[in-house]
Design goal:
Length: about 200
Amino acid sequence: MTTAQPSTATPPSETPLRWYCADANNHPRGPLSRDEIACLKLGGMISDQTLVMKEGGGDWQPYGKVFGAATYGTPTSPSMPEREQTILEIAKRARIRSVCGAYAPVVNCTAFEEEVCLQILKLFPEAAFTACWHVRGDGSELWTLFSAGKCDVGQIARQMRGNGDARRVEFIEPAVDVEKIIHERDELIHELAMLEPAIP
């Protein structure tokens, strides 16, 4: 009779909750949950060879080695109706806000950006363009804009030092240094207080 050997697989509870993956320009994207990174794989935005790393450090390793090449996040799961439902639910969260001086429906989205934006344009047929954004690991925001053919979003990309064409562009909004802003505000308040006339 053979004795069962203990499993070497990592129990689900020990799996890191958030991950980074390398984008097309080898910049880290994330942190992302397990579901978000699986959505990127499902959407064809990353592959089994895409490098991923758990939040908090460690080595960059191929997605397929970390999560398994033919398991979670393959094109067979979730099913197409589930994927379409997910895209619709994300698109429904879009809200009108200012983007580089123009108003457009915008949503926070880490996967299926093009499909989500096309769905948003169906929900907001009067919109000239729409946008998806998400926060990257360094605190900056990656913006992706899609045009409905009513405007040239390439102009916005050039204004924001991004890249793309008249239909689809990307640009990065730098992280806001809140501590620096507070420090500058406090210095200004101090300088203004020094200018106040002394009360006799």
